[in-house]
Structures are given as C-alpha cells and as structure tokens.
Amino acid sequence: MVTKSLSFRAVKLKTKIAPSILGADYGDLNHYLQKLEPFSDLFHVDVMDGNFVPNLTIGAVVVNAIKTTIPLDCHLMINHPEEYIEDFAKAGAHIITVHAEATRDLKKTIEKIHDLGCLAGVSIDPKTPVSKIQKVLPLVDLVLIMSVEPGFGGQAFMPEVLPKIVQIRKAYPELDIEVDGGITHETAPLCKSAGANIFVAGSYILKADDPKAAAEKLRKAVS
C-alpha cells in the first residue's frame, strides 16, 4: 500500500467534510478548489458516464489535471468501473469507490483498486439493500451510502437510508461510512447519529453565498 493510503488510514473514523466538486467551476477548477482547501478533508469527485446514471461529468483526464493537497475521493458512478479504475489511480485518486450495482465482479474490482495503491470503497443506491455488499464489507476501506438517487445534485435527503448506516456501523465499528446526497447542517446530524463519519456536501457548500461559513456550520453540526 502506498504512502497516500497509509496517511488516510492514520486518521480513520475521524469526522470528515468532503465537498463534492460536481457544481464547481471546471473552467478554473484548481483556483476554485484552492478556496475550498482550508475547510475540506476530502474532495468528492463525482464521475458519471451518462449510462449508469442519467448525467455526464468528468473523467480521469480532468482528475489528472487537479492540483491540490486534499485527498481525492473518486466516486465512479459508471458501468463496468473495473475497466477504468487504473486510469483514475494513475490520475491521482486516493480513494476509488465503485457501485455494487455496476460492477461485474465486486471482489475482484476491490482487489484491483488495492493493488493500484488506492483505498477501495463500495457504494449502494437508496433502494439497494446492505445484503448486496455484505460479502465485501470486510475487504473495503469505505462504504458510501447514497441518500439520493445518483445522477444530479440538489436533491432532497432520503431518511429511509438511515437504517442501512446503523446496520453497517453495528457490524463494522471501525469502517469509514460516507453519506452522499442532500447533506446539510440539518440532515448530517441524523447520519452522524446513525453511524456515518464522512459527509459529502455539494450544493450546500458550493452554492452557498459563503462556502466557508456553510462548511463550518456543517462541521459544527456533526462535531
């Protein structure tokens, strides 16, 4: 395992704020991210293929162009991610998360992510039960629970996913659990109480008049 992975493991289960760059200004991305760095623990990079989800975003080429000291949390909302994870690893991803619904062989894909020196995450959609990923939970570094239907930002939080977080946290007390979708200073505490420790916030931070103040309010809500 390479140094970047080990450094992340050293602060495992620390509460983390991960701004999603889905709504960032891609025309001046690095300058934009520099403004977010002081209050970000991770940058959540949403990768969508227009197939697995009805939206199309960035690929490994853009990830490779990102210059930041903040670890990149690459969330691959794409079909057959096993065909592309090497590209994202080479581009600088620290964490690569794949969807259980989109992968031919989840176990082999997770092993490949680790072999490439990255932390491996697995994600499930709101309607997918935890049983879908039960066999790989001992193998992953992170579980990402989607609290909206993946594809577009700005959706309302779905509280029905909270029992999944509780279920996973009870079984794996030392596993990082990330939640993504509709996260605000009001919904994040619900996820924290259920057992989540990493909070992805897109519109709440990036569309705020004062992103720093919004991020600080969110961090305070889950402290």
Unreliable spans: 1-11
Overall shape: it is globular
Percentage of helical residues? 25-40%
CATH class: Alpha Beta
Average pLDDT for all residues: 89
If helices are DSSP runs of H or I spanning 4 or more residues, what is the number of helices? 9
Structural class given helices, strands, pairing? alpha/beta
Strand order of the largest sheet: 1-8-7-6-5-4-3-2
Give the N-to-C terminal Cα separation: 30 Å
Strand content: 15-25%
- How many domain units? 1
CATH fold-level topology: TIM Barrel
The radius of gyration over CA amounts to: 16 Å
Description:
- The protein has a single domain (about 5-220), classed as TIM Barrel.
- It is about 30% helix and about 20% strand.
- It is built from nine helices and eight strands.
- It has an eight-stranded parallel beta sheet.
- Helix 7 (about 190-195) links the parallel strand 7 and strand 8 (about 200).
- The longest helix is centred in the last third of the chain and has 11 residues, at about 210-220.
- Mean pLDDT is about 90; it is low at about 1-10.
Could you provide a short overview of the structure?
The chain is 31% helix and 18% strand. It has 9 helices and 8 strands.
